[in-house]
Amino acid sequence: MLSNRAKYPINYWGCWGVGSILVQLARQLTNLTIIGTASRPDSIQWILNHGAHHVIDHGKDMKSQLQALKCPEVDYVISLTHTDEHAKALVDVLKPQGKFALIDDPQHLDIKLFKPKSLSIHWEMMYTRSMFKTPDMMRQHEILEQIAKLVDEGKIKTTMAECMGLINAVNLKKAHALIESGLARGKIVLSGF
After folding, report:
1. Which residues, if any, are the signal sequence (predicted)?
2. Looking at residue 6, what is its pLDDT?
3. Cα of 153 vs its chain's centroid, Å
4. Which of 69, 145, 153, 166 has its CA at 20 to 30 Å from residue 85's CA atom?
């Protein structure tokens, strides 16, 4: 878990489902100043509505945008997608000895980018504990209980952006087209399973 010191993480591609919940959890569980990334006005507003303090455009020079926020470098980067395409820009904004977390599966990640700043890399997969029956497997249960409590208290809100109706071929194609367009935010839901 992130420390409670006033530090700055970047939530890269923060308007999708994982980013939408990540911003809320970081806001509820830490004292971090949360910086999300997005490129469209509706996505920027989405991330702000879910708890980010600031949003920068990942399609533009991130370093200059951070400098405008009086935050030239960040302590943490959490990259949720397209990590291999944007690793250099993300490493550039990390402080020396910063922490770089990712959840996607980059095809060509140049690990040498991380060495000059002695950055630590943290790869996360949701089911590692259960897949490998790790000694701390019960931690997954504890985390889910903590999240359920935050939801029950109204401190975490849904990341559902759109319900496209019953699951069928037509609606599945519509949902898939929206995701492929790059214009989706939050979670898209199909019902009737």
Report:
1. none
2. 47
3. 22
4. 69
Which two tokens mark 31? 């004292």
| 69, 38 contact by CB (below 8 A) | no
State yes or no: pLDDT of 126 exceeds 50.
yes
pTM: 0.83
For position 95, which CATH number holds? 3.40.50.720
78 in a structural domain: yes
Rounded Cα gap, residues 54 and 74, in angstroms: 13
Q: Is residue 139 part of a domain?
A: no
Render pLDDT for 18-53 as a digit per residue (tens, 0 to 9).
Answer: 888 999 999 999 999 999 998 889 889 989 999 999
Q: What ranges in the chain are assigned the alpha helix state H?
A: 17-29, 41-49, 62-68, 83-92, 128-132, 138-152, 169-181
| Mean pLDDT of the region 119-147 | 94
Order of strands, sheet of 94-102, starting from the edge strand that comes earlier in the sequence: 54-56, 35-37, 9-12, 74-79, 94-102, 120-123
What is the domain extent for residue 47? 9-124
Best CA proximity match to 153, nearest among 24, 45, 19: 24
Same-domain check for residues 112 and 164: no
Last residue of a domain, one of 79, 99, 124: 124
Which 3 state secondary structure label does DSSP give 121?
strand
- At 183 the three-state DSSP class reads coil
